[in-house]
Input
Amino acid sequence: MMAGRGKLTYISGKVYEGTFVNNILEGPGACKWENGDFYAGEFKNGQMHGKGCYIWENGNRFEGIFENNSRTEQGILYKATELESTAPPEWVNELFK
Output
């Protein structure tokens, strides 16, 4: 049983480093996916939940609040080609609109 700080490497290549409670990602941590995307922030019940920063492989990033593995409207999307977004992001079915 995993408990406390640790590192988990999935068969897919995804790597998680952070806190485990009863084999579940819980609390502060970071995750890197095989496609280069990266998340650092809070986890709850194995999902991104709470304050965090998600960085896409292309350099875009979202800093804000996550709930149940989804971004919320409480945050800012920064585009790699611009200094920063002037408006909060709008998400429709997990896609930036």
About this structure: The radius of gyration is 14 Å. Residues 36 and 88 are 24 Å apart (CA to CA). Residues 92-97 have pLDDT under 50 and may be disordered.
